[in-house]
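pasting for the record
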Amino acid sequence: MLKAIFNTAVSSYLTWRYKRIELMIKQGRDFQKSMLDRFLIEGRMTEYGRKNSFKNIKNYDTFSKETPVTTYEDIFDDIQLMMKGKPNVLWPGKVDWFAKSSGTTSNNSKFIPVSDRFFENNLMASSWDTTTLLYQMRPDCKTFERKNLTMCGSISKISEYPDAHVGDVSAIMVEKMPLIGRPFITPDTETNMISNWEEKLDKVCKKVIHEDVVMIGGVPTWLIVLFDKMLEYTGKDNILEIWPNLTTYLHGGVGFCPYIKTFQKYIPKSDFDYVEVYNASEGCFAVQDTNIDPNGMLLLLNNDIFYEFILLSDFHVGKMNAIPIWEVSIGVHYVLVITTSSGLWRYMPGDTIAFTTIQPYRIKVTGRTKSFINAFGEEVMVGNTDTAVKIVADQHNAIVSEYTVAPHWLSNNSKGRHDWLIEFEVAPHNIAQFETDLDLALQKLNSDYEAKRSKNLALEQLSIKVVPKGTFLRWLHTKGKSGGQNKVPRLFNDRTIVESVCSVL
């Protein structure tokens, strides 16, 4: 009874709070301009601001001309200094928290600074915005009456950086969650912070089957593994027999389309809401704001991120001519550029987006700037696979001519995996051992892939199909792409390329 009253009170607060979102929709451009002005003033107190003469920058035009667009590699040394405890490097003061994510560099992971200011004004504010929109879409929402399942990573310490707290964004959110939210989260923080995923899943299963869960969030792959474990443990036929009041799934980070039918098997409910949130290691950018014919996600323009956009066509030819929010167009593919109160100045997270509406500003994520596979949250990059192929080919005295990789989707009878098509100039004597060694090498190079492969919980070992010599050249010819400048796509986030190549066999 008390929880029901509390939920009603929170619902009333969120109705009032929705005015903040309405104001953002109406005055988003003004918020963006004033935000950049504040950032530049604060940035003058940093080493980065002094190096880039922020004291001389008075407006956006000067900012865009004088401040370089950056990647993680560009600020890697600065972030290392911050992790060692040095203050005033990229943002005023000392930053103690860092979001861990697989990177596109040669390093196993990248570490994104999360200042206290950014945690409050972006991560927490966006969480409240998401909750506000949920209650607008579903007025009978009971997020603050029952339980919400959150599957997150863990927080760790690195010996080289003893003062730095490192973890994925979801783990940071759970660890620093305000007291008001803790009674409504399951599992408890201690369980959520277990680093061993096999142990964590077992304990989560045994805890959450007794809870009255109304909302779930997390990477689809891990939730499916958890669902299977729950059904096996309870003997039930679907998740609604365990959680009859389940109404909502917050998803993001990976494309969800391949998972919809699988989730509908576990959750056979016609009025179940799938709500997309654009959340990354660098911050929360957007959230779906309607459950009626959703047309992209509402870009959050007042949450301590200043946005810019580079035409994807310009990016491909090395032109970094970014434009602000007030100059974008619908349906154009842009590379996302952000400036944040954690010290990311004109930083490219690596995503490409397109605007679906302008009033309000809604976006959809269209891909990544580099070749990748992120079908199961593993974020495998072409640098990982190229290095793994070289290492294992050397071990087996083999020569690889061409290869391409695609996800093999989860099904009722099998888990997901990566399917490789490889053309050998010199084939290894033992393809099965080559598969095993390649999988192990990829795990060593990519921590997220390693986590998904752990104990075969979410991903099975990769599978290799050897194709005859000349296959890829024939395929390129059929596509009218003969010539030295045309390349075989190494990684693709769906099966388009793999199936197209197989069609010429």
